[in-house]
C-alpha cells in the first residue's frame, strides 16, 4: 500500500484528503504490521525471533515494515555493539498507546470469527 511521506507540512493538494483515519491506516498498512505491533506489545523481540514468529515473511519485507514502523515513531530499534550484532525491537511510547486499539481489534476479530463459524456450522470451545 502506498505511504505518505511528508517532511513538515503536506503539500496543499494533499491536505484535503488527509484525515486521522487515513493517517492511521497509513501507519498500519502492510500485511504484517499489525501482527508485528501485537508481538511487540507482548515483549521486546530480536530480528531473528520475528522471523520465527512470522513464518512466511521474507527478511526484506520484515526489514521494510519494521523500518516504516520505526520511521512512524511506533517502534524503537536498539543496536548493541556486539559480535555478532544484536538488534532488539520494542514499542515506543506512541506504539504503546496503540495497544488498546490492538486489544479492540482482537475482541472484534473473535466476535467476527464466531459469527462466521456459526454461519458455516462450526463450533468453537471457549
UniProtKB/TrEMBL annotation:
Family annotation (Gene3D superfamilies): Winged helix-like DNA-binding domain superfamily/Winged helix DNA-binding domain
Pfam families attached to this UniProt entry: HxlR
InterPro entries: ArsR-like_HTH, HTH_HxlR, WH-like_DNA-bd_sf, WH_DNA-bd_sf
Name under which the protein is recorded: Helix-turn-helix transcriptional regulator
Entry's transmembrane regions: none
Keyword Transcription regulation: yes
Protein source organism: Metabacillus arenae
Domain spans labelled HTH hxlR-type: 19-117
Source species taxonomy: Bacteria, Bacillati, Bacillota, Bacilli, Bacillales
GO molecular function, one term: DNA binding
Entries under SUPFAM superfamilies matching the protein: Winged helix' DNA-binding domain
Keywords carried by this UniProt record: DNA-binding, Transcription, Transcription regulation
Signal peptide: none
